Amino acid sequence: MANEVIKTPYDTLTYKIIGCAMAVHRDLGPGLRENTYQRSLANHLSEAALSIEEEKLYSVYDDQAQERLVGYYIPDFVVEGSVIVEIKAIKNLDSSHLAQVIGYLAVSGLSIGLLINFGERSLRYRRVFPPQKIIDHLVNRQWLFIPDWLKNNKDERTPTKPSKSV
User: How much is the pTM?
Assistant: First the structure.
């Protein structure tokens, strides 16, 4: 029962994404830098007529009221506005990489993610679902990007939520 595949409304889309990743891995093999795989996968996803957002910024706040911005999560891709795709080019994935995608799902509100590793002899991928207790996964400082302008404001006690321009 533990190895049972969970069916989702995103199966067709995730299979297309995985197919594109397999084509990239078949063409390039392991051993290259992550940004090389990222560029190639972007090309393959576009050729497959999938809409992609590369390195989309997701605001991360320190509490549920979203009063104090602490940084951003930046997944490699958001495909069709529905699937977070995070790629790696390393020898082995570990639980911290899984936690990274879970954090992205918690903040984005999306329902599924793919963690794809091009660094092994065979392409490795894993479908990732959002956590049941989202609040526990909203801020993972290991994967948090904090721009310089925000670092300079961190000592202020006033909220740093960006204002919306009109």
Answer: 0.79
| Contacts with 32 (C-beta within 8 Å, 6 or more apart), sequence order | 89, 118
The CA distance from 20 to 159, in Å, is 42
Question: Rounded distance, CA 41 to CA 68, Å?
Answer: 35
- Quickly list DSSP for the chain: -TTPPPP-TTHHHHHHHHHHHHHHHHHH-SSS-HHHHHHHHHHHHHHTT--EEES--EEEESSTT--SEEEEE--SEEETTTEEEEEE-SS---HHHHHHHHHHHHHH--SEEEEEE-SSSS-EEEEE---SSGGGGS--GGG-B--HHHHHHTT--S--PPPPP-
* Tokens 């799902």 -> residue: 105
The β-bridge partners of 124 are 117
Report how far residue 26's alpha carbon sits from residue 73's, in angstroms, rounded to the nearest whole number. Answer: 29
Provide the β-strand partners of residue 59: 72
pLDDT, one tens digit per residue, over 90-137 is 999 999 999 999 989 988 999 999 999 999 999 999 999 987 765 555
